[in-house]
């Protein structure tokens, strides 16, 4: 395709690139010069020291600026001298600022010389690309429920991987499963599930930070059935999506807990392992489990060789009564040669203390005699208690009656003495009254005139 004819339709991506940390990489080993010459014609790349020129044929410009870690966003100086900031710019400009860089998208940019002010890393170069896209590793088929799966994705520009420190902080990745609602599938009633994201931070399954390879792990502990995978990379400037249909199949290796037989004195639990030889290779199927129990018990359970598709694995004998848990994984190889690692759902069992044997006739007789003796002793104690209680009550009542009787006697004597004293006083008062009456008769009550 002729570059001059399609120049008007091309998106211009200007990338400020620190030479030791390449923003773009290829799968084949080659020098930076070879990649650069293959990727961008020489007239479009030059050392400008934070300055660049946009001609009149460009409809859109996307600037990817790499700057010092933690530095402030750059200031964009337009050809007329006006300035744009990350917090103040026209509505037609989309700006994403991160810890280590900026992504700026400009529609219909003003032709002429532009400049960036800020802690832009030295050795920057200007590159033009036609499109930003995402490249997502497809999910393998068959894909099994509970499988531990590592998947990768990357941002690309003209099929070359974009690489810049801190790029993951400026792009949000989301991975979702959407049920196709097919009758008969376990996921028929399931909607859309967010199952993970992609990171380029050197943690978890990601091998190296800031290498442009975003790594994710899917949560495959979901109902089986037909889904559509949707992987989205977005920010304020662009949004790209990758979709693919797939089927989540049941695990080809099933591990079940089997209780001990009723006549098993040692109470040994077993694991029943069923291997679907139509899906995986029996000779390359290995089991790695761990038995945990009371008092911090941890016992590894390893099975490196399975001799039959239906295998019964005895668990280690345990003696502590309580709750136990078995968890782990199964490593195998599909019949198509893909190595897989499956999570085994956690299983639990309880070791219950067996019931005591029934007592013999002698023990029952001794127990009955003991109970009778205890009852007799209780009755004796009850009788003594009531005897003492009743006697105590009678004794107290007797004392109270004696006190009341003595008080009545004292009261009667006091009343008799009072009555006698009153009588004596009455007699004395009567005698005195008669003497006084005689004295009054002797008194001359006549007036002097009467005597004459």
TrEMBL record:
It comes from Shewanella gaetbuli. Keywords: Membrane, Signal, Transmembrane, Transmembrane helix. Residues 424-435 have a biased composition (Basic and acidic residues). Residues 424-452 are annotated as: Disordered. Residues 1-25 form the signal peptide. This is TIGR03503 family protein. The chain crosses the membrane at residues 383-405.
């Amino acid at each position: 395709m002729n570059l001059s004819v399609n120049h008007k339709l091309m998106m211009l991506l200007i990338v400020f690139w620190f030479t030791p940390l390449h923003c773009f990489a290829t799968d084949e080993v080659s020098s930076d010069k070879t990649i650069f010459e293959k990727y961008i014609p020489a007239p479009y790349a030059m050392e400008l020291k934070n300055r660049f020129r946009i001609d009149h044929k460009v409809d859109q410009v996307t600037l990817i600026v790499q700057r010092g870690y933690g530095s402030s966003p750059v200031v964009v100086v337009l050809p007329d001298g006006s300035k744009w900031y990350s917090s103040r710019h026209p509505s037609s400009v989309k700006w994403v600022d991160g810890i280590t860089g900026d992504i700026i998208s400009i529609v219909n940019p003003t032709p002429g010389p532009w400049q960036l002010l800020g802690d832009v890393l030295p050795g920057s170069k200007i590159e033009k690309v036609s499109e930003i896209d995402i490249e997502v590793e497809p999910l393998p088929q068959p894909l099994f429920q509970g499988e531990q799966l590592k998947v990768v994705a990357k941002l690309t520009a003209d099929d070359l991987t974009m690489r810049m420190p801190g790029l993951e902080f400026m792009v949000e990745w989301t991975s979702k499963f959407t049920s196709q609602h097919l009758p008969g599938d376990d996921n028929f009633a399931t909607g859309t599930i967010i199952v993970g994201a992609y990171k380029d931070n050197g943690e978890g399954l990601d091998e190296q930070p800031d290498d442009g390879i975003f790594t994710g792990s899917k949560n495959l502990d979901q109902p089986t059935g037909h889904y559509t995978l949707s992987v989205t990379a977005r920010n304020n400037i662009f949004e790209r999506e990758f979709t693919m249909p797939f089927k989540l199949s049941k695990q080809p290796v099933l591990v079940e807990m089997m209780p001990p037989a009723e006549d098993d004195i040692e109470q040994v639990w077993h694991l029943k392992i069923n291997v679907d030889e139509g899906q995986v290779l029996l000779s390359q199927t290995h089991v790695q489990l761990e038995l945990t129990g009371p008092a911090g018990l941890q016992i590894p359970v390893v099975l490196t060789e399975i001799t039959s598709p239906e295998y019964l694995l005895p668990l280690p004998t345990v003696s502590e009564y309580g709750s136990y848990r078995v968890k782990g994984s199964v490593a195998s190889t599909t019949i198509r040669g893909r190595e897989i690692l499956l999570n085994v759902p956690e299983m639990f069992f309880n070791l219950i203390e067996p019931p005591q044997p029934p007592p013999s006739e002698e023990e029952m007789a001794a127990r009955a005699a003991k109970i009778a003796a205890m009852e007799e002793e209780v009755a004796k104690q009850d009788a003594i208690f009531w005897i003492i209680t009743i006697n105590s009550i009678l004794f107290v009542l007797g004392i109270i009656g004696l006190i009341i009787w003595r008080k009545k006697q004292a009261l009667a004597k006091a009343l008799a003495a009072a009555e006698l004293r009153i009588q004596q006083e009455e007699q004395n008062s009567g005698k005195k009254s008669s003497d006084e009456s005689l004295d009054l008769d002797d008194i001359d009550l006549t007036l002097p005139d009467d005597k004459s």
